[in-house]
Structures are given as C-alpha cells and as structure tokens.
Amino acid sequence: MFLAPDGVKPFDLSLGCVFGSGLQPGQSDNLLLNRLLYLAATGYGLRKRSFNTTSETVSVSSKRPRVEGMPMASYVLPSRVLHIRGLPADTTEIEIVKLAMPFGPIANFVLTKKTGQALIEMTSVEVAAKMLEYYQFYPPLFRGGEESAILQFSKYQSLELTGISRPVSEAIAMANEHFLHCVAENPMRPRVLRVFLEPTPHNQLNYMDYFKIFYRYGAILRIIVFKMSGRSQAFVEFHSPISAHAALLAVNGQVLPLYAATMRIEFSRQTSLELRQDDNTSRDFVAQPLSSQEEQDLIKALTPL
After folding, report:
1. Which GO terms describe its molecular function (predicted)?
2. Domain boundaries, the chain
3. Distance of alpha carbon 174 from alpha carbon 195, whole angstroms
4. Closest CA to 117 of 176, 57, 72
C-alpha cells in the first residue's frame, strides 16, 4: 500500500485502484505519477505560508494544536463545512461556488476577502469529504495558476449566519442550478472536453501545450489537437469526470497571452478519444506516458518562482 502525500487515502497499486476508482491495466502508475508530479511541481504542502486565520465576521481560526508537517484535515473532525484559506484578496463569490459545482449543492457560504478565507457548507459530510479529497491533490488555482488555496474541514459542523448578502445568495442559486442540470440530471458525466481558441492563433498549440494547461486539474488520458472550419480546437480526455468538470469551470474564458487567444470550453459528446495518428497533434498518455525528460520539463514549467 502506498500512502498519498496528503494522507487522505491509501493507494493499492497492485489492484490498480486510486481513490476507489477502478483503472484499466497500466493506468494506475501513470495516474499516480500525474498526482505526485503535480504536488512536487507546485510544492503543495511544502511552501511556508503566512495567513491571518481570524475574521471580523466569522472566526475561522482553529485552536487545535497543529502537528508539524501534517495537513490539518487529517485530524479535524469531518464536517459539512470546509475552510478555504490562502485566497487572493479580490476573490469573488462566483469563484468560490465554482469550486463546489462538480461535487454537490451548496447550503451556505461566507467569504471574508480581507483575510483571504471562506467557509462553504455542503449538503452532507460525504459531499464535503469528496470535495476535500479532490482539492488536496489538485489545490484550487486562481489568477491563471499563479496562486493556489488550501482546503480543510472546518471546526464548524454547520453555518449559522445572521444574514446572507445578495451576491452570496445569487451565487448559491446559480451554482445549485448548474449542479442540477450538469450533474444531477446527467448520470453519464462527461470526461472529454472540447476546447476552442478564439481567435485562431497564428502558431498552433501542440498536445503538450494543452497538457500543461489542463494537467493541474487531474490525470489526463488523451489529447487530440486539430483544426475544423479554420478554428483551432482540441479534445482533452480526463480520467475523472470531476477533473473534467473542474477544469472547464476554471479554464473556460481564460486568455493565453502568448497566443492572443481566449479559451472557450464545453463538454464533448464523445465518451472517449480514439487516436488515429501519433505526432505532435495527439497523444495517448496511457499507452505513452511522460518520459523522464518531459517530467523534468513539466516540473520546471510548473514550479513557482
């Protein structure tokens, strides 16, 4: 058994199971490498951060003793409420609810921009635990990946707020409607994203360019880059529907300055990708995992300065 770096759940590589999800033969090592490489590249859990853990409105400080080197989520009791810290000062209510959309309905939340923190209450402990499990491997990114936040179980079992602001109530309503239409009413959740670049850049992106963009949201199985009707497009297949959903919410609308193009993303109707050629426009990362040199290049590209 291999214990994940964040201590959330053990890996059984002999069974090819990660997070309780069955993998096809040969996928487990590649999926584990994806996650460990991302953690190494971002230094998640290793960087020293200094956060103000108090709020004038809602106290989110924990007086429990912290064990050095261990994530706080490993000993705080499970709760429907998650504590998010390390948020940029200009984080919006919409950005907070987007973090929860792939996992379940939101009961309530509070955002304190002054301290860069938020408390978000899901409808059950199980949903909150699933959300925490994902973000401990793939920390939520902000400002184009320049900043990341940290999640943990809150010491609160529920939020009892005296009042809810209009931006918060509107964000919750939007998020829950999104979850209803995209998840609750869609049992076959898509794992493939279709990416458009607008306007079409002069220099075509290759599969590694897309890999570096989407790698931070989950294990990628296959990528196909192509042009149709003069538009630059790509298909990106994730191992997990949650990863695909989180990537869509985070990356859709982002601008690629080097290419002067904006990414438009939607769920694809394809359930999986079949590669018909092997060149710089497509790659099966299960059949052809990253080489040692590619791993090193990726770490250099992702390591924060």
Report:
1. RNA binding
2. 81-184, 192-301
3. 23
4. 57
Sign of CA dihedral 20, 157, 118, 267: positive
- What are the beta bridge partners of residue 195? 234, 265
Architecture of the domain made up of 192-301: 2-Layer Sandwich (3.30)
What is the Cα Rg of the chain in Å? 19
Q: DSSP alpha helices (H): ranges in 43-115?
A: 93-100
For residue 154, CA distances in Å to 6, 42, 74, 110, 207 come to 17, 24, 12, 13, 39
CA-to-CA distance for 114 and 77, rounded, in angstroms? 27
**DSSP structure class, residue 71:** -
Common-topology check for domains 81-184 and 192-301: yes
Can you tell me the distance from the alpha carbon of 236 to that of 211, in angstroms, rounded to the nearest whole number? Answer: 8
Answer yes or no: are the C-beta atoms of 62 and 155 closer than 8 Å.
Answer: yes
Which residue shows structure tokens 């301290």? Answer: 115
8 Å CB contact between 264 and 252: yes
Give the strand order in the sheet containing 150-153: 106-112, 117-122, 81-85, 150-153
As a CATH number, domain 81-184 is: 3.30.70.330
Distance, in Å, from the CA atom of 136 to the CA atom of 122, rounded to the nearest integer, reads 17
Q: What is the pLDDT along the chain (305 residues), one digit of tens a residue?
A: 333 333 333 333 222 222 333 334 344 445 555 555 554 444 433 332 333 333 333 444 333 333 334 344 456 789 999 999 999 999 999 999 999 999 999 999 999 999 999 999 999 999 999 999 999 999 998 876 667 899 999 999 999 887 788 999 999 999 999 999 888 887 789 999 999 999 988 888 999 999 999 999 999 999 999 988 888 999 999 999 999 999 999 999 999 988 889 999 999 999 999 988 778 889 999 999 988 888 888 877 665 43
Whose structure tokens read 């300055």? Answer: 257
Do residues 113 and 86 make contact, with C-beta atoms less than 8 angstroms apart? no
